[in-house]
Design a protein that fits this description.
Blueprint: H1 6-15, H2 22-43, H3 77-81, E1 87-88, E2 91-92
Antiparallel strand pairs: 1-2
Length: 99
């Protein structure tokens, strides 16, 4: 028997201010039943309790970052600011986006 009864689903839906139709509640009930069935199958796997949980499913490669060395001649700021639409001194002006 499912731990997620129709009464529990109705309780949580009301607490979250979600109005559910009978069809929606039945669909959610079936989905929770499927989840519980899947969890029961997983729990039946031999040695599952001894397996260390993974936080990331892929092997991490150690990436080598480039050194912070000068890679050539520096571009003057006035040349860089030519591409900006609006400039105030050495700063680029951008439109205000927050009230």
């Amino acid at each position: 028997m499912s731990n997620f009864t129709k009464e529990k689903i109705d309780y949580y839906a009301n607490a979250l201010l979600i109005g559910l139709t009978d069809e929606e509640r039945d669909m959610i009930q079936r989905e929770f039943d499927d989840i519980e069935t899947s969890m029961e199958l997983i729990n039946k796997i031999d040695g599952i309790k001894e397996v260390e949980p993974q936080s990331y499913p892929f092997e991490m490669e150690a990436l080598e970052l480039r050194s912070d060395e000068d890679e050539g001649e520096e571009i003057p700021i006035d040349i860089l600011l030519r591409n900006a639409g609006s400039v105030d001194g050495r700063e680029v002006e951008v439109p205000k986006v927050v009230g």
